[in-house]
Amino acid sequence: MKRPEAAPLPGDAENVRLLGAELLSDSWYTLRKIHFELRRRDGRWQPLSREAYDRGNGAVLLLWDPVRRTVVLTRQFRLPAFLNGSPDGQLIEACAGLLDGDEPEACIRREAEEETGYRIRAPRKLFEAYMSPGSVTEKLHFFIAEYAPGDRVRAGGGVVEEGEDIEVIEMPLADALAAIASGRIQDGKTIMLLQHVALASVNTP
Ligand SMILES: Nc1nc2c(ncn2[C@@H]2O[C@H](COP(=O)(O)OP(=O)(O)O[C@H]3O[C@H](CO)[C@@H](O)[C@H](O)[C@@H]3O)[C@@H](O)[C@H]2O)c(=O)[nH]1
Ligand SMILES: [Mg+2]
């Protein structure tokens, strides 16, 4: 897998003047310290510095079977979650990946097949969201796609050479929603997608 280049700094805006960037780390992704001036609401310009971690943008997809009311999720080790209190670091998530230079829809088709083994037919874009805007530049593109059991063309599991070891889990939507309440599902993007389906079901007669 190629590493994404950090995005070039944008031009100034009405309320922001960029003064410079210090590279703190580009070991795998890029961590920079950005020096800038921000115009406060009272008109005063305030000098500030903030660190920003750039790992590119990503896409995430919920596979949803409206006939059986089931979803397909993944389970994999996430080091940052392990460092921050997850007892085994295994997180249940909707399948997702970094864009790696692709358009979001192409990315999510590739990731769905690599991670879950499902070949998706018609992904529907829902929304875009910054997931951790105080520290991480990433914007995530959210999709949903209907699936049926016959759409699974291979085992999935991720790319072994890249260290991925992904378990594919199918469960009723009701169980997934209960898992949010119990704390068994703690991944933000996944919670957003499951709640989207739950809300859409409530609002569809
Ligand atoms: N060697 C090396 N490999 C890395 C490193 N960091 C990540 N990788 C590898 O880069 C690949 C990233 O896998 P993707 O499936 O493309 O991304 P993801 O980690 O699933 O990201 C998704 O979830 C994230 C967490 O919620 C999201 O931030 C992201 O947008 C996306 O949705 C994995 O094979 C991972 O092992 C690193 O520091 N070193
Ligand atoms: Mg992934």
Automatic annotation (TrEMBL):
This is GDP-mannose pyrophosphatase. GO terms for cellular component: cytosol. Its cofactor is Mg(2+). Mg(2+) binds at A96, E111, E115, E164. InterPro entries: NDP_pyrophosphatase, NUDIX_hydrolase-like_dom_sf, NUDIX_hydrolase_dom. Residues 54-193 form the Nudix hydrolase domain. One of its GO terms (biological process) is ribose phosphate metabolic process. Pfam families: NUDIX (PF00293). GO terms for molecular function: hydrolase activity, acting on acid anhydrides, in phosphorus-containing anhydrides; metal ion binding. PROSITE patterns: NUDIX (PS51462). It comes from Acidovorax soli. Homodimer. Belongs to the Nudix hydrolase family. NudK subfamily. A motif (Nudix box) lies at residues 97-118. Keywords: Hydrolase, Magnesium, Metal-binding. It catalyses: GDP-alpha-D-mannose + H2O = alpha-D-mannose 1-phosphate + GMP + 2 H(+). SUPFAM superfamilies: Nudix.
